[in-house]
């Protein structure tokens, strides 16, 4: 009985309006992030923003670990722990996004200065990270939506794609950070 009440606290309604919100966010977030590169004028948010790439590296690394722990929890049929861990991963991803935007609206882009085999490795990781991060927004939002609306079969089908892509995006985010970190001013 207690478990049922706990589960009910996580539920939301499956409505067309909620689906529309996911559709709008799935487009708006990648478009807004892409527009950051087009903005020539930077907003002076302060010197504190210089630390944000390092925080983003920690957020991505922590998110990667939490995603793996959430995967282990569900494989062990610990649904409550899985839900909590995936909620934490979603919050970490959201904090990353806010931090990323704050950094990029207030700082000039950092150029990668590596040479040799590091250069193509960096750009392959970066481009695959960027491309997959665009699509993973929708996958994650839909996966969470399916879970919260108790559409578990749809959730299971979707996370077969969403989980590995989200994990890849998180891990490559860490790798890209480690490769470019020496070039931050």
UniProtKB/TrEMBL annotation:
The chain crosses the membrane at residues 21-39, 51-73, 85-106, 121-141, 161-184. Pfam families: DUF420 (PF04238). It comes from the Bacteria. Keywords: Membrane, Transmembrane, Transmembrane helix. InterPro entries: DUF420. Coiled coil: none annotated. This is Putative membrane protein YozB. It comes from Aquirufa nivalisilvae.
């Amino acid at each position: 009985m207690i478990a049922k009440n706990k589960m009910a606290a996580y539920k939301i309604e499956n409505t067309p309006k909620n689906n529309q919100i996911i559709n709008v966010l799935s487009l708006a977030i990648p478009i807004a992030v892409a527009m950051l590169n087009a903005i020539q004028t930077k907003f002076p948010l302060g010197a504190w923003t210089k630390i944000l790439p390092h925080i983003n590296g920690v957020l991505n690394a922590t998110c990667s670990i939490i995603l793996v722990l959430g995967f282990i929890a569900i494989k062990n049929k610990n649904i409550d722990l899985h839900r909590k861990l995936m909620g934490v991963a979603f919050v970490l991803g959201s904090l990353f996004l806010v931090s990323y935007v704050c950094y990029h609206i207030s700082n000039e882009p950092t150029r990668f200065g590596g040479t040799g085999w590091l250069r193509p490795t960096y750009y392959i990781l970066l481009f695959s990270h960027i491309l997959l991060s665009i699509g993973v927004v929708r996958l994650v939002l839909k996966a969470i939506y399916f879970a919260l609306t108790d559409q578990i079969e749809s959730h299971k089908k979707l996370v077969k794609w969403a989980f590995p892509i989200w994990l890849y995006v998180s891990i490559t985010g860490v790798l890209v950070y480690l490769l470019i970190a020496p070039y931050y001013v």
